[in-house]
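Forum: Protein Structure Q&A
Topic: Joint prediction for protein chains with partners

I've read a bunch of threads here and the consensus seems to be that you should model interacting components together rather than docking separate models afterwards. I'd like to see that in practice. Below is the full input, 916 residues plus whatever partners are listed. Could one of the regulars post the assembled result?
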Amino acid sequence: MRGKHKTDNNEHKQFIDNRSISSSKDEGLIESKQLQIVEGAYKLFLTKGFHPTSIREIAEACNMSMGQLYHYISSKDDVLYLVHKHFHKIMYDFLKTQKLEEYVSPVEKLINFIKANLYFVNQNKKLIQFISTETKYLQKDYLKDVLAMEKESTIGLYHQLLVEINKEIPIIADLEILASILAYLVAFLPMKGWTVNEDSLDDVNRCILDLVFRGLGQSVLQEAEKFLI
Amino acid sequence: MRGKHKTDNNEHKQFIDNRSISSSKDEGLIESKQLQIVEGAYKLFLTKGFHPTSIREIAEACNMSMGQLYHYISSKDDVLYLVHKHFHKIMYDFLKTQKLEEYVSPVEKLINFIKANLYFVNQNKKLIQFISTETKYLQKDYLKDVLAMEKESTIGLYHQLLVEINKEIPIIADLEILASILAYLVAFLPMKGWTVNEDSLDDVNRCILDLVFRGLGQSVLQEAEKFLI
Amino acid sequence: MRGKHKTDNNEHKQFIDNRSISSSKDEGLIESKQLQIVEGAYKLFLTKGFHPTSIREIAEACNMSMGQLYHYISSKDDVLYLVHKHFHKIMYDFLKTQKLEEYVSPVEKLINFIKANLYFVNQNKKLIQFISTETKYLQKDYLKDVLAMEKESTIGLYHQLLVEINKEIPIIADLEILASILAYLVAFLPMKGWTVNEDSLDDVNRCILDLVFRGLGQSVLQEAEKFLI
Amino acid sequence: MRGKHKTDNNEHKQFIDNRSISSSKDEGLIESKQLQIVEGAYKLFLTKGFHPTSIREIAEACNMSMGQLYHYISSKDDVLYLVHKHFHKIMYDFLKTQKLEEYVSPVEKLINFIKANLYFVNQNKKLIQFISTETKYLQKDYLKDVLAMEKESTIGLYHQLLVEINKEIPIIADLEILASILAYLVAFLPMKGWTVNEDSLDDVNRCILDLVFRGLGQSVLQEAEKFLI
DNA sequence: GATGAATGAGGCTTCATTCAT
DNA sequence: AATGAATGAAGCCTCATTCAT
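Posted by a regular:
Agreed with the consensus. Here's the joint model:
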């Protein structure tokens, strides 16, 4: 009834169009208001979680009236989607700007990429935890969309790097699966960190890096040892 | 406000006492009724998640009246706790009965332990996913309790095995952290499974095993290669 | 989800079961509470109409909390249905008790039946008007149910009487259609009453009676003239 | 509160002036825009009813912005009024153009008039039903206006014809009441048609015609029988 | 004159929990 | 000990209408 989830047939748009969520017509306004919503909502989500956060609280947090809020979303589920989308964007943007071109060795690139990812993940523990735990509450269409987004961004970057390494040093593994696993592994601390001493953040990161680079095989490790401090 | 969270001062009891949750006095009855609750509730939780499941649905699912239900729990949160406790128990029980004594080599023990764990995890995808994503909604005291339980059971088993290996082949890593990471890694598929082809379950498991055993270092790998098919 | 509209397969129950509307288990209680709801709601409906009456007003009018109200209905639509059902019951009960057995001539029976119906209709103008104008807002299943009810009660009684007459004096018309038309005609005043002077109620009734009995044909009229004052 | 209900004191204008509804000054524009509104709105009303149709839907359906819409009406109620007015106009226009002058006998005129009315009514079932059921939601002043309109148009035409007949063949009845009843009777099918087999439209019409012409008395019937097929 | 974003009260419904029976 | 009816606050969402641009 409320035209959401209409996936755009326009082949240049691969993801769900924000305009299908909002009843507004001004696309620029939609974008800016939805950002305002995300910024208001995600802080609440991080502390309380999705379900315990009420739509009224969200409206307050982003300084909107209920009516205005619903002008730019069509249901509470949309907020969850918008937060996911935003998260994947900022994480992707962060990882993308890591100037990996500076490094010649693809292994060195991967090392620094993982380090960057670990850094980001530890700077955004709560957000990572939120995303990991509430993704399942996305509606079907949104879920598909978000998973596709993830695969094309973060996981995609891992995959590229693995492919690059594989050209020089063969990695005996399915690179797509490996990319997914690496992206998952890196989120260990926000997800399970509580079982680990808070102080040992560096130890954990080291442990993950070691596991990964040893795990990629003897030849990769030899190369990697040059760069692992 | 309500009588929950009374941590038992009895130093021999390390976990929260069920009797502090129930207003009943017959401990056997409490146990059996709470099991009934868990069995009714967890199926709902797996499909709908914790918050979207209502206490009334739970009562129906476990064939209890509201009154009876509240006789054995003191709030909905208790159900979440009971399900967690139950999960850790069955997972621990499963892993415990893996007859690892049969194997002489500690590395072989670990291999088979991880395989068993992967098997369990894949047999209980939804449950694993539920536990991983809703743990954060446990109340503080319950959370502490559950994390302690986890550390003493699954993670504990990993730790023991690593210690055993370490006696023979030194592992350069904090074994506690490593144990946590391994336990986390094994849950990859249920958590991220959707991004991976259903058929490639074996590929994924293989990938994880390889990553781990290469990751434990050259010496462990050499030993492991004898047993990895 | 909320099991309403489950038409009972039990062949003795032809109409929608009240228990499918309520989440209560005590059938006697359901009946009495639903009556309480109908009595609270219908007065509001008569003055304000269905949509302008809020569910909160209904709860107040029948001295129930919101929660209690929804224990005995599952949506506002149910109230509309209950009011319809109640209306058809009381109208049927009234018409049924008209002791038409006293009259020998079937034509006289019809005369007195119509008179009774006109009387009832004029005593319950607002109610008749409400029912006639809001029936269309019944949900599909409820609509079917209510129309069936009507056909079996009021219209059914008209039909029986026409059949009885027809045995003695042939009526050249489809008796089912005629029965429907008569039932409709009788509601003229509540429906259009506003266009007609209040005082002329008797004139209108006379006019309708005349129209009908002349309308049934010369032979019926001759018989009828004996009884029409 | 808002500028509606200003009844015009100008004694030559008997109906509510459209300009009192609109804030525009160009009367031609008002007329054309209000027609646009009526045409957009009435389709929605026919399917959903008055209250369930939102003013936003109306704006969309008639391709107007909210602002423009409210330029030509001053509240949602106005739309209901405009639709009523429009309905009475088109029905009156249709009936007026029935070239009854062709017939010499006033009884034949009435026969053909009723047939035309039945035809119109069956062509516009949903509209008739809508008007009949939602008139009660007109605001007081509008209601008075609409009822006066009806009396002067459709009912008026019936009345004229009855008077004409009455000159030749006395009808023993209050002709005003009779006119109202006839106009009401003719709407039987849209209002109660659902209780009657869909196919039997012709039977129903026949039944109504018979009822009416027999109902007007023996002498009228004799005359009528010449023309009733 | 025209737009459509903004308002915020109020719509219907559900909920965890209690307590009279 | 057991029942399930009762509570009423709070849930999400929509609405007719206004007014800054």
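Residues 77-225 of chain D form a domain with the Tetracycline Repressor; domain 2 fold (CATH 1.10.357.10).
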